[in-house]
Amino acid sequence: MHYKGSGNGASPLGLKAAAAAVLFFLHGPVWIILLYAFTTDEATFSFPPPGLTIKWFGIASQRNDFWEALALSLRVAATATTTAMALGTLAAAAVYRSRFFGREAISFLLILPLALPGIVTGIALRSAISLANIPFSLWTIVVGHATFCVVVVYNNVLARFRRMGSSQIEASMDLGANVFQTFRHIVLPHLATALLAGGMLAFALSFDEVIVTTFTSGQQSTLPIWIFTQLTRPRDRPVTNVVALYVIGITFIPILLAHRLTMEREETA
Amino acid sequence: MSILDTKPVSVSKSSSYPALAPSSSQRVSTYIYQRPWLIMILLLGLPLFWMIVIYLGSLATLLLNSFYYLDSFTGLIVRQFTLRTYANLMTRANLDIVLRTAGMASAVTLSTAMLAFPLAYYMARYASKRIKGFLYLAVLLPLWSSYLVRVYAWKLILAKEGILSWFILQTHLDWLLNALLSAPGIGGPSLSVSAIGIYIVFVYVWLPYMILPIEAALERVPKSLLEASGDLGARPGQTFRRIVLPLAFPGVVAGSIFTFSLTLGDFIVPSALGNSSFFIGQAVLSHQGTSGNLPLAAAFTVVPMAIMVLYLIGAKKLGAFDAL
Question: CATH number, domain at B193?
Fold first, then answer.
């Protein structure tokens, strides 16, 4: 498309404009939601809005279904993230420690739930749940989320392990610390920010997930499922606009924090 | 290589110092330390159990389910090996769904690659360190967050009374919009209920997944190579076509794994903006949900799975995993 006219070496003005246009395409639509959260129009999505109001924020905060969905989503995300942090760190440590047969296979296995279409993971878990007659609960949702979150933590922690080198571990062991002490005082502080960053990303990923959740939640409604119902059968448009704004806030914060954590580390390293 | 790989000489020595009488945790530590295979089992046991038993096990039950069938009289799933569910899959209507989805995935992949290129190229070649950090975050934020909300934003934008229609009316381009909407196959009553709408939203939501791998691939193109090409008399266009594009290609393939796979398995966007022409995801959802035909839903899922496995093998051959 645009990039053809502006090959390298030539003035990058055309390229700059194209890059800016893509950036606008990427972020413009989200600002629309901010505008619509204040519209007085409650039946359609008319633009420009006929008037502005803040009453929908109050109305949304009185909705029990919203609070219940939010609470469920937060609980699922917290549990799935904790599980993924433990599993991802263990796998990263194993892969970093030694070159064993099937190292590549482990990375491949971990990325599979993200690389395969979400619906595959969803229906696979659904058929396992149905085959084993497991009742739907918080845990059926958590298992699905943790499965595709592991790789996020794994990637972050493995990258940190590789940058850390082994001399400090060697020094610690030479000075008489045992395996547990070395882990507690040397390895863990080194991993902390990478672990935290991976955890934040996993949290955002889980909080936002809808495709796998559709198959593993039964009658329960997480916040994304609540929004999805509104998308296909819009009943409370103004409330949905406000909820959409909340979701943006809740997912942006951990991602910004994760970004900061990894950046700081790179600067000091 | 870590010290843990080498023979544990220092620990057995240190335990002989009187100041360090071996405590029980010390003994456990030494015991573990001297057995590298034990460490591997302790580290890998849980993650492998989770991924193999729970994840691969579920995938296996998915395959198993696809070989069962739904008895249409009793409405019960008959747990008996049969190929009749796959025979059901091969009807004209179902093949249409598969082709429609694969076609959409290809179109979306091509378009995201073209849109991603200028931004990725700018980030890799021209942006200062500060700007690059900012752009990186600007791409990461939509990649990680609020997927549903971003689909919802387009529902607002594309609505008949929404901002895009308003803009089109202001610029007197409504004849173009009407021509597009009345086109058979891709049109509909409004942009928010049409194949064009689905296409736009897919391109929008998966774009970040394409930008990052292309940027990573471009980042690795040495500047000296471009200078050499110029020194040898290639025009900028030639250098771009014959040096930059081939070297960026693994990045495009890596990005396409995501855009293709995500489009194949998505039912949110087509349900939010589509009509009765189903995509694979919707078919799976409705067979599993309303009609309770889990075997057919499972058989349907085997299609994108097979496509993606072939795709991943091809991508590995093209060196796409280095660009992830």
Answer: 1.10.3720.10
Distance of CA B192 to the CA centre of its chain: 24
Q: Let me know whether A106 and A16 are in one domain.
A: no
Q: What is the pLDDT of residue B309?
A: 83
Spatial separation of the C-alpha atoms in residues B125 and A175, rounded to whole Å: 47
When pLDDT is cut at 50, 70 and 90, the band that residue A15 belongs to is confident
* Sequence letter at residue A34: L
Examine the domain organization and report whether A23 and A130 are in the same domain: no
B240·A7 Cβ contact <8 A: yes
DSSP B187-199: --SSGGGSHHHHH
In a domain, B81, yes or no: no
Q: How far apart are CA A224 and CA A216, in angstroms?
A: 13
- Number of domains forming the structure of chain A: 2
Residue B141 to residue A252, Cβ atoms within 8 A: yes
Rounded Cα gap, residues A229 and B272, in angstroms? 9
- Give the DSSP H/E element, type plus range, for residue B78: strand B77-78
The reply to whether A87 and A191 lie within a common domain is yes
Question: Please, is A139 exposed, middle or buried when counting C-beta atoms within 10 Å of its C-beta (0-12, 13-18, 19+)?
Answer: middle
Are A75 and A194 in a shared domain?
yes
Alpha carbon separation from A142 to A103, A203, A206, B163, B268 (Å, rounded): 26, 12, 9, 38, 21
Mean pLDDT of B55-81: 85
Contact A228 B135 (CB under 8 A): no
* CB-facing half-sphere around the CA of A266: CA atoms within 13 A: 11
- Token pair in block for residue A34: 């901010």
Q: Is residue B74 part of a domain?
A: no
Cα B205–B207–B209 angle (5° rounding)? Answer: 100
The domain in which residue B43 lies consists of 37-62
Q: Is-contact B294 A126, C-beta < 8 A?
A: yes
| Chain B residues inside the 8 Å CB shell of A117 | 261-262, 264-266, 281, 301, 304-305, 308
CB contact under 8 A, A47 and B166: yes
Residues 279-308 of B with CB under 8 A from A: 280-281, 284-285, 288, 294, 297-298, 301, 304-305, 308
Q: What is the pTM of this model?
A: 0.83
SS3 B289: coil
C-beta separation of B301 from A119 below 8 A: yes
Q: Do A166 and B50 touch (CB under 8 A)?
A: no
Average pLDDT, chain B: 83
Nearest Cα neighbor of B68 from B89, B84, B91 is B84
Tokens of B276: 């009765």
Per-residue pLDDT, B3: 45
| A52 in a structural domain | no
pLDDT tens for A142-181 read 999 999 999 999 988 988 888 887 788 888 888 888 878 8
Chain segment A79-99, per-residue pLDDT in tens: 999 999 999 999 988 888 776
* A chain contacts of residue B165, beta-carbon cutoff 8 Å: 47
